[in-house]
Amino acid sequence: MKCPYCAEPATQVVDTRENEDGDTVRRRRRCLACDKRFTTYERVELQLPLVVKKNGSRTEYDREKVLASMMLALRKRPVTTESVDASIDRIEEKLVTLGEREVPSDKIGELVMRELKKLDKIAYIRFSSVYRNFEDVEEFSDAIREVRKPRLRRPRSPA
Known about the structure:
alpha+beta
């Protein structure tokens, strides 16, 4: 692993840790030339299916595109990057377990919506309003009703 600061190929691993799920390894490294430290991540490279867009064209799956769209929906929301990474990992796991060589972009959008619904209801509404192309207020209302928790009625106090 080359040092990102001085491009020296000789580095030393200082610390190694697995994430909770055991699917990513984080390594702290030290450059033997400039003595600066940096972090690297190792993750299993999965063979993900090609994405079939609405116009019929095909493209490689891009984790960064999924991350960018989720982060846009989650802008200024109290959700950790670890939670977002875990969600994307689950999406990719589902795509791999489908066993398909190609998957429609709609399927990925639905998986993203499902994960956002678990992470943050506001982000879910934001994403679904763009993804489903809401055209009027009623469609927003339907989406809000879908995520709204039923409120428990409080017993009335005697007057």
